[in-house]
Give the backbone structure.
Amino acid sequence: MPPVRTTATLPPAVPATTLTVAGALELPALAGARLAAGHAGARRAIRVANIMEVPDIIRWMRGGEFLLTTAYAVRDDEQALTGLVPELAGRGLAALGVKVGPYLPRLPATMLRTADELGFPIVELPGEVMLNDILSEVIGTVLNRQALSLERSQALRDRLSEAVLGGGSYRELVTLLAEETGCPAAVRGPDGTVVAACGDIPEHTAPRLTRPILAGHRGSGDVALWPGLGSGRTPDAGHPTAEHLAAENADTEHTDAEHAVALEHVASLAGMLAVQERVLAERERRYRTLLLTELVSHPPRERTEAARRAAALGWDLERPRAAVVVELTGAATGSAVRLTEDRLLAAARTTLGGHTPAWGTPGGLTVLVAAGDPDERDSLRHRCEELRRAVAAACPGHTVAVGAGTVRADFAELHLSHSEALGALALGRELDGPARSFIRLHEESGVYRLLHQLPAPELHALVDDALGPLLRYDTRHDGSLVHSLTVYLRHDRNGVEAAEELHVHYNTLRYRLKQIERLTGAPDKDPMRRLQTELAVHAHRLLRARAS
C-alpha cells in the first residue's frame, strides 16, 4: 500500500481523566487544605484513598493511595512522623494528608524538608475537616473518572470498529487516533515505512508511543504516536524548575496511559485489516497461479474466458510470449521457502515489468516473458540474462539455472513453450552439470531441438540400435564406455584431449575405444553409422535429462 499522509489540523490534547493530588485539592471536601511540601509531586495520580490510624498500615499499601491521618499514633514523635515520608514515597503512595488540629498542632519542619527533597506531597488538612468526607469524595471522584475513561475508551473502540466494518482503511484508523489524542499518528510497515499518517510527523524523531500490529502470530508493523505541538507548559513562576519538570513528567505519564489504551485499540483493529489484506493477497496469488498453471499445462478450454481472466489480472496475453523456467539449487526449506519465493517474484516483476505473469514453483519460478526481435535488446536471450542476474542478486549463494521455450504469438500454445522450457532446463542440467548456473534456450539447442520433436519410443529405439551393446556392457561391468564415447565425440575424436577430460591415460582410452569398436562393429568406418552413433549419444543425454 503506498504511503498516505494527511495534514489535518489536530485538536488540543484531551484533559487527563486521572485524579491527581493537585486535582484533589480542588474538591469541595478539601476546601481549606493546602499543599505544604513536595510540590514536585503535585501531579501524582491518586488510585484510591485510605485512612491511617496506626503506622502498621503502611505495609498494606500498594501504591497510588492518598493516605489520610490525624497522626495520633505518632503525635509526640517528630522523628517517627518524619520517617514516614521516605517509607511512603518508597511504597509509591500519591500523597499524605495530615490533619492539623488538636493532636498535631503543626507539621514538623524536618518532615516538610524531607518531603520536598523526595518530591512527595504533604497535604495539610484543616482541623475541622472530616476524614470520612474526604475519603468518600476522593474515592467517588476516582471511580467516576475511571468510568468516564472506560466510556470514552469504549466509544473510541466503537468508532474504530465502525470504520473498519464499513470498509475503512489504515488511514481512517490513524485519523480517528489523531483526533482522539491530539497527536500526529501513523501506521508503519514492518520495515518502518509510513503506510498511513495523520498530522505532521517530525522527521528524524522517534515516536513517543508504539504498539505492534499482529496479524495472527506474524508482525505487520506498528502504530506510532508522536508528541503533539503545544503539549508543553510554561513553568509556573512560583515553582522551582525541578518541580515544574517533575510535574511535566507526571502529566506525561497520565496522558501516555490514556493514549496507550487508544493505541491498543487501533493496533488491534489494524491487525484485523492486516489479516484481511493477507487473506486477499493469498487468494489472488492462488487465482493467478491457477490460471497460469492452466495456460502452461494444456490449451485453454475456453479461449475467451481465459483471455478475460487474464485481462482482469492486468495481463496482456496478446503479446508474443515465451515460457521461462528458473530453478535454484541450495534453496531454503521450511518457513524460508515463501520468503525466497517472494524475493524471486519481486525480482522478476522489477526486471520484466510489474504486469509480467509469474508464479512461484518448488525451488524457483515460471515466467511468461514478452520478447521482441532476436537482434534487439528485448530479445528472449537478453530478457533471460536480465532475469538471471536479478534472481542471483535477490538470492545470493544460490545457483541459478534458466530454461526458455520458444516465443509463441498465440497464448493457446504457451503449454508447448513451457514444455520446451522444462526440456531446455533439464538438458542444461545434463550438459552443464547440476552445480553450475546457465541459460539455455530451446531455440538455441541445435540438434537437441530436432531430437526433442521425436516421440520417446523413437528416441529409445535410436539409442538401443546404436548404443545398446555398450549400455548393457556398462551395466554388467560397472563400466563407462558410453561416457568415454560421449567425451571422445565432443572433442571431435581427439584422443589426447578426451583422455585429459576423463582423467585417464591415453592408452586406457585407446583400450576403451577398441572395446567400443568390438561391441558396435566399428561405426567410424561407415559414415551413416557414424552419424547414427553421434545422434544416439545426444538422444541418450536428452533421455537422461528428461528422466532427471
Observations:
- The mean pLDDT is 80.
- The chain has 16 helices and 15 strands.
